[in-house]
Amino acid sequence: MRAAIVALLAAAAFSGCQQKTEQRPATTTPPSQAQPPAQAADKRTPRPSMKQSDARIWIDSLTVAKGASGAFKINYYGVEPLRAIVLPLTFPVGMHVDSVSFAGGILEYLSSRPTRIENDQRFLLMTGIPMTEPDIPAKEGILARVHFTLGQDAVSGKIDETFVPPGNYLTYVDTAGALVEPIFEPGTLTVQ
Fold first, then answer.
1. Which pLDDT score, from 0 to 100, does residue 44 have?
2. I need a surface site. Which of 12, 59, 132, 188 has the fewest CB within 10 A?
3. Which residues pair with 88 in a beta bridge?
4. Given phi > 0 = left and psi -120 to 50 = alpha, else beta, which region is 122?
5. pLDDT above 70 covers what percent of the chain?
């Protein structure tokens, strides 16, 4: 059962992520052609049944001037080891995600960290899947750092969880093979 759930998550992550590297050049669409974020309540696949967890994922809040570059941390507090993690995020209009770095973070040791950046649709999909490595440890630390540049059209808003088709919700797989939903706290981008 556990192997089947991890395989299913891996398949969804690999189909949802186009590149497995730490940095991926992002595509750009003029603001006039920008599409809404990936989450559209009326088009979402029903969330799978998941147990709740005391594990936490939270995003830094920050203030950045239009046209400037910056980075925010995705923080994690784990209460049990993980077999896999899926983290889809949406970000405000005018934020252009340049790259994602796992250096110095909890997922740095993994060989499989598929990441997909879609600036046109304003979402970022990250996964961590131990293949031959040990499970993701239960500890507090940084999952990743997201580097970005703000355009002149940038607006203040939340960096929040989202849904990314075909079935990527914020979730992880515990060592028993169960789908688990961690507590999530969005970050806030304030544009100066």
1. 57
2. 132
3. 125
4. left
5. 73
